[in-house]
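Final report, closing paragraph on structural work. Over the funding period we assembled a curated collection of sequence-structure pairs, and we close with a single example.
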Amino acid sequence: MVRASPLVQRCIKRMGATMQNTDILPETAVSGPAARGAAVHFRSLQMLRAGAAYAVLLFHLKLLHLGYAGVDVFFVLSGFIMGTMAPREGPRRFLLRRVIRVVPLYWLVTLVFCAAALVPGLFRHFVFNPVDLLRSLAFIPYYSTDGQIWPIVVPGWTLNYEMLFYGLMALCLTTPRPVPMLVGLLLALVAVGAWFPQQTAPGHVATGPLLLEFAGGLVLSMVYGRLPGLAGLAALVGGAVWLALCSRLVAPEMGEMMRVAVLGVPSLLLVGGALAVEQAGWAIPGSGWLARALEKMGDASYSLYLLHPLLLSAVERATRNAPHLRVALALIACTAAALACHALFERPVG
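Its predicted structure, as stored:
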């Protein structure tokens, strides 16, 4: 048996409690009503991606109680991005692009994690077998030994939802109106899950309430060009205040439907508000070097999301005798590793 470090154990426990990562969206060049079919680059989405990824990291460092809400932001962003980009592509091209974007890094991190687990003394309480490895690599949800729907790399639970979403999108791309069709399909699946609760892990994911967050992003992709700037500013502020008020009132163990109501709705407000404010031509708060840095980290957010559990374990071991350095070293190590992984692996492969 291979055992994970205490920090990784806490990370896994808290991630699992909140579940029940994102894709962390790769593209920000999208089209929509306001663009009249032309590509548009949304700086606000880049910064939201970076902020959401760091929120998850800070949550696992026990510095941000509601940091796991970053996952809900990712799901809304995924729905919005796919809703604006996918209709411009055929089903095959769409699926191919998503597989190339998501799969190689996830497979690499999973295999590295398994290889590292074989190093004596590096991990504790971490067990994997060939069947679980194959199911993880194939994005087939399954119940882990802890009774949770966790793949070998725990943040990959979000990718099970993402890959299901991509598959459904490809299916709907064969219809005349793919985005409205997919919204209806997601609503129907959640209704089935509400009336007939699924006991199997694949059934739970395929009918889970978290699919509503993707649906919210899809709806936003159909209307965002008509959102006035003032309403967007109100939504942006309202979403931020909503999350701030919930930061100490919400338990990570809430049910998924409650999670959609408490965290999914403000996530939708944040994404929609940021888009409307930017489209109105208003200045983005934090513009300058900070905004540029966040945009850069937005590109590397997928790497940051997948790599940070393994890096946190290494940092904990390195700072065992100097715990006061743990947070600073973790932030530096995760940021540097994410940027390097994006430049050396994600961009060449994708």
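The beta strands are 2-3, 29-30, 40-41, 125-126. The longest helix spans residues 91-117. We thank the funder for supporting this effort.
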